[in-house]
């Protein structure tokens, strides 16, 4: 059985000892019902991975047994700019995007967004979203907890440019465009930003604005994907190209 994994802060480490925070302590003692002598994995903000043994369950105290060579991260940074959808679709996307290796998630309000965001309500929701992201990161053996930013609009999009920048555009798919995404994967070496719209998609004017910023419009194959499917498709392609398509990588 795989060991439970926890993200810890620098402040929780003192020499070879780790003091669990309240949330971690409760999870170890009450949820997992672990006891002294049991072992868990702890990851610090610098991506150091520690095999730890519980030495005091009452105080939530662990000792570091050894440092592990453990890396499950993509070798490129991936920023997902995602048009906020209706209902609980956002929760599913951020969970699965975390599992697929995303580095940063940027909620985006476009002209066709079907929801409005209240700042105070968003702050409350963001706490839940961050918990979903952290749990998904622990479950999928990530070394980082992906960043969740505040909601942005078009005039802030240029702040999130990367080495490669793509916007999924259904009109490109309808026109049969199938090469931009593939060519972008061949150029990718360090970072990529992918932009996916909400249910209503993007209007042509928005896409033109993004192109002026440096984004390339791309299709995602022959089918038109739902807004919650498109980012996961793109992340899966990136993961395949960076981790599984070794022969193609060698040719590049």
UniProtKB/TrEMBL annotation:
GO biological process: rRNA base methylation
Subcellular location(s) of the protein: Cytoplasm
Listed EC numbers: 2.1.1.193
Domain Ribosomal RNA small subunit methyltransferase E methyltransferase: 73-238
Catalytic activity: uridine(1498) in 16S rRNA + S-adenosyl-L-methionine = N(3)-methyluridine(1498) in 16S rRNA + S-adenosyl-L-homocysteine + H(+)
Keywords in alphabetical order: Cytoplasm, Methyltransferase, rRNA processing, S-adenosyl-L-methionine, Transferase
Gene Ontology MF: a single term: rRNA (uridine-N3-)-methyltransferase activity
Domain Ribosomal RNA small subunit methyltransferase E PUA-like: 26-65
EC top class named in words: transferase
Keyword Cell inner membrane: no
A cellular component annotation (GO) from this entry: cytoplasm
Gene3D superfamilies documented for this protein: 3.40.1280.10, Hypothetical PUA domain-like, domain 1 (2.40.240.20)
Keyword rRNA processing attributed: yes
Known function: Specifically methylates the N3 position of the uracil ring of uridine 1498 (m3U1498) in 16S rRNA. Acts on the fully assembled 30S ribosomal subunit.
UniProt similarity note: Belongs to the RNA methyltransferase RsmE family.
Protein name: Ribosomal RNA small subunit methyltransferase E
Annotated source species: Kandleria vitulina DSM 20405
Taxonomy of the source species: Bacteria, Bacillati, Bacillota, Erysipelotrichia, Erysipelotrichales
């Amino acid at each position: 059985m795989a060991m439970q994994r926890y993200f810890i802060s620098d402040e929780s480490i003192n020499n070879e000892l780790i003091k669990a925070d309240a949330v971690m302590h409760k999870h170890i003692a009450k949820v997992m019902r672990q006891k002294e002598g049991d072992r868990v994995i702890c990851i610090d903000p610098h991506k150091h991975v520690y095999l730890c043994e519980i030495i005091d369950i009452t105080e939530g105290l662990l000792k570091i047994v050894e440092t592990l060579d453990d890396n499950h991260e993509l070798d490129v940074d991936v920023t997902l700019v995602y048009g906020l959808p209706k209902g609980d679709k956002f929760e599913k996307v951020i969970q699965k995007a975390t599992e697929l290796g995303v580095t940063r998630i940027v909620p985006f309000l476009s002209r066709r967004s079907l929801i409005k965001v209240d700042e105070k309500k968003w702050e409350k929701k963001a706490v839940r979203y961050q918990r979903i992201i952290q749990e998904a990161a622990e479950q999928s053996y990530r070394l980082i907890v992906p960043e969740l930013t505040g909601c942005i609009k078009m005039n802030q999009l240029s702040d999130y440019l990367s080495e490669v920048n793509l916007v999924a555009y259904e009109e490109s798919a309808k026109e049969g465009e199938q090469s931009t995404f593939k060519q972008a994967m061949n150029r990718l070496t360090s970072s990529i930003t992918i932009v996916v719209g909400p249910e209503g998609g993007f209007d042509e004017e928005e896409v033109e604005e993004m192109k002026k910023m440096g984004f390339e419009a791309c299709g995602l194959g022959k089918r038109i994907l739902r807004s919650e499917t498109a980012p996961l498709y793109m992340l899966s392609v990136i993961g395949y190209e960076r981790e599984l398509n070794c022969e193609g990588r060698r040719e590049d």
